[in-house]
């Protein structure tokens, strides 16, 4: 078993007394993609803190050339990234009061620059109706501290007819409730508060665009 697998389980199983203090710091960027005016998906890029970066680079860049080849990339995916699926890939999508997460992601890649690790993957959004959409990257348990990039948190790949716009704001109308004492196999998010639950207010990307662009193609 890879060293990183032990590290991830160790950190995730840290006693709940430390739940309010993040143990991993990740910066996110999101690139929304349209095809013929229809929103098709988003590429999510994560930039990791130097400590986690060093662990992955040391453990998986086996030939020490500074580049993750296909075999090394597959190793990172199967022994490190795949565990994010237990936490909904830390991706949450909302339209109205309905919040959901991707069942899978694709096009995973990994690279490093000056000792800092990056993940990139694709989230399919093609099934969502053409209306205002909220896209968020967060860990409601506070194990990981996700922050949006301060310089370029959001970018767009589309033609000029789409006219996309975005804003990022803390959402206190649709909070997330969770049990900090849940086991690693029980990561349920609750719809309503009850004694013992913690409350998290996610920062969401509000995505607005010309919803009629697709129908005009």
UniProtKB/TrEMBL annotation:
Keywords: Signal. It comes from the Bacteria. Residues 1-20 form the signal peptide. Pfam families: DUF1007. The keyword Signal applies. This is DUF1007 family protein. It comes from Treponema phagedenis.
